[in-house]
Amino acid sequence: MITLYKMAWRDLGRNRRRTFFSMLALAFGVALLVFMASFIAGEMRGALNSAIKLQSGHVQVRAASYNEDKTSMDFADLIENPDALAAQIAARPEVLVATPRLYATGIVASGDTSSGVRLIGIDPASAANAPFRDGMVVGDYLTADDRGGLLMGETLADKLGLQPGASVNLLVNTSNGDVDQQAFTIRGIYSTGTPGYDENTIFVPIAKAQAIARAENHASAIFILLKNQDQAGLMADALQGPAYQVKTYLQLNPLLVEFEQFANVYMYLFYLIVLGITATVIINTLIMSVFERTREIGILAAMGMRGGRIMAMFFAESSLLAVGGIAMGVALGSLLSAYVQTYGFFIGNFGITGVLIGERIYTYLTVNDIVTLAILAMVVTLLAAVYPAMVAANLEPVEALHGGK
Description:
Layout: H1 2-12, H2 16-56, E1 59-63, E2 79-80, H3 82-90, E3 95-110, E4 113-122, H4 130-134, E5 136-139, E6 149-153, H5 154-160, E7 167-173, E8 179-190, H6 195-198, E9 201-205, H7 206-212, E10 218-219, E11 221-226, H8 232-239, E12 244-248, H9 249-252, H10 254-292, H11 294-302, H12 307-343, E13 345-346, E14 360-361, H13 367-384, H14 386-393, H15 397-403
Parallel strand pairs: 4-9, 6-8
Antiparallel strand pairs: 1-11, 1-12, 2-10, 3-4, 3-7, 3-11, 5-8, 6-9, 7-8, 13-14
């Protein structure tokens, strides 16, 4: 085996420029795939993290009859005395924070412009609302006793041309099926770095949300963050009961889960396409090597080297090309991924309905992705050597000696 690799090394060294560019083609293909894998993983990871901290939490407890699609405000669909239930859940050792939230749909209007929004009543002091408190762009954060102020997302404020201190009219659906209207003052403008969320979401203290929606002492859900998100399923099982529906972040973000599955299938097809293109370069290199060494192959066959060993020699050359190309590709792709992981890739206000994609995407490269791609690239490169190796192995010694003259 060592002898075969020595011969393969010598043969590749005969035309160093061609060997280098063959490795470089494979390296670029692998680097592109490493970067794309980290890009997709980072996008999905970022969207899931945004969904958890902004929208779903790790677990949510709701009334058994609550319908999220309708944002129901009927008392029968809301949790009564949510503060007590939240305190009970927060006392569990696995829980980082549990806080009630009230969701309502409405319209915010200023002058001749208006926009549909989702009103969320929150406990301003809860650690679960840190993304909004830490994301304040201008103005002041809410206080629990504020009865006339709201927080507005930066994207929505820019759309309506508003600043802190401006007055807006808010129309909200109430628990009895009516629409209530009230003037609010914009206390502050926040940014979560997720334009799609910031454009549609405004916040008021939960006591004020309950008052305007006529849902006193009721909440839509208990928003729960865990110390370890892997315990979400166990927590959901522990909290299940006939009076409540308990859902994990995976159940609350079905579109994101489906999108990730689709992206993974697409990426494997993309892997095969890119590696298939680079494999043609390897095939060309080895075919040229067969033509250039026809007489030498004939001599080896005449001396008794069997076809299987001749094939093994070309597989050895292919594996050396693969190792060199994969090593360069992984290094190049990892460096590019590390750069984007540090500084991000700005995409602006670009998103998919139901998926919270931030204005910057950060790559996330895992060892598993590198190993998978390296193995896949090695297999494809070795498969690319099958045809040239068979051509070489099937050469008749006499014809090969004659063809080499």
